[in-house]
């Protein structure tokens, strides 16, 4: 059972040619203050259920991201937020979307919820505008964060459209390495070798397409002044758990790239010593960083 405090929104996408689900949590003030508008935090991973499924893995202890949010509210550390949990994978969660317009959607082999595979277009041109129309959001007060491949997508989104977000966060993100001072995807990169990436990235891998969707390459191509306007909050697991239990080296790499652009990491702790690549640690990251997102969002009002 997913967290009943989140409502399921179904969006018929013209660009995908199918319907995608998205969960939305509205703060208690939403109905009590009908003339008030609210800041928004998008939380990414893959399937729309993951942040709000108390049993997504065995580590979570029966809680969800909404519980983390409400604990921080009770401690008066953050204010009211709309939380958005988009579906950014196939409906069976077997094919990740990577916030990418798929290079070879036919290779998704009929996975439900993929359609044309135009997920980048769906997210920016359909999902976000649809939610801004349906709910009383503040478009100028929008944040984005993600766990694992959700971190990849959050950083990519911020690099593509720094004007649309005031803060960006990632926990144990799957960040690929780049070559040529960040201009191109590294040909020897193994992160995206598994077959589940065939549809979004092509088989064999289309290096030009990968570079066009590569968070680091996009950061190096973006306006650094616009990037520096955002608050960046990057965390990851400890070095001791490499190579299978944490993305320490990939996280360190991203932080170095950001530093080269004059961007400091606002996270209170970068490598969480007790973290693992699981939902308990992702919720721990959210508890540490939601107040930083709130500070950035509140500064826009």
UniProtKB/TrEMBL annotation:
One of its GO terms (molecular function) is acyltransferase activity, transferring groups other than amino-acyl groups. It comes from the Bacteria. SUPFAM superfamilies: alpha/beta-Hydrolases (SSF53474). It holds the Pfam family Esterase. InterPro entries: AB_hydrolase_fold, Esterase-like, Mycobacterial_A85_antigen. This is Esterase.
């Amino acid at each position: 059972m997913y967290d009943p405090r989140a409502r399921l929104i179904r969006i018929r996408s013209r660009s995908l040619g199918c319907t995608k689900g998205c969960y939305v949590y509205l703060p208690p003030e939403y109905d009590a203050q009908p003339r008030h508008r609210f800041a928004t935090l998008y939380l990414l991973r893959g399937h729309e259920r993951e942040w709000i499924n108390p049993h997504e893995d065995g580590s979570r202890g029966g809680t969800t991201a909404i519980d983390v949010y409400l604990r921080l509210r009770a401690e008066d550390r953050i204010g009211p937020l709309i939380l958005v949990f988009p579906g950014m994978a196939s409906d069976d969660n077997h094919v990740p979307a990577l916030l990418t317009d798929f290079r070879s959607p036919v290779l998704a082999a009929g996975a439900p919820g993929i359609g044309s595979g135009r997920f980048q277009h769906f997210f920016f041109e359909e999902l976000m505008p649809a939610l801004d129309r349906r709910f009383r959001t503040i478009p100028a007060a929008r944040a984005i964060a993600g766990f694992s491949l959700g971190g990849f997508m959050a950083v990519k989104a911020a690099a593509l459209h720094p004007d649309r977000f005031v803060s960006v966060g990632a926990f144990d993100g799957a960040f690929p390495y780049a070559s040529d001072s960040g201009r191109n995807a590294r040909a020897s990169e193994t992160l995206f070798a598994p077959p589940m990436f065939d549809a979004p990235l092509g088989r064999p891998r289309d290096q030009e397409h990968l570079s066009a969707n590569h968070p680091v390459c996009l950061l190096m191509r973006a306006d650094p002044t616009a990037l520096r306007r955002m608050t960046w909050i990057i965390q990851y697991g400890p070095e001791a758990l490499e190579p299978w239990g944490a993305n320490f080296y990939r996280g360190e790499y991203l932080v170095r790239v950001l530093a080269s652009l004059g961007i400091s990491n606002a996270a209170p702790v970068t490598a969480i010593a007790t973290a693992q690549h699981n939902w308990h640690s992702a919720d721990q990251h959210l508890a540490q960083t939601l107040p930083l997102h709130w500070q950035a969002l509140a500064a826009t009002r």
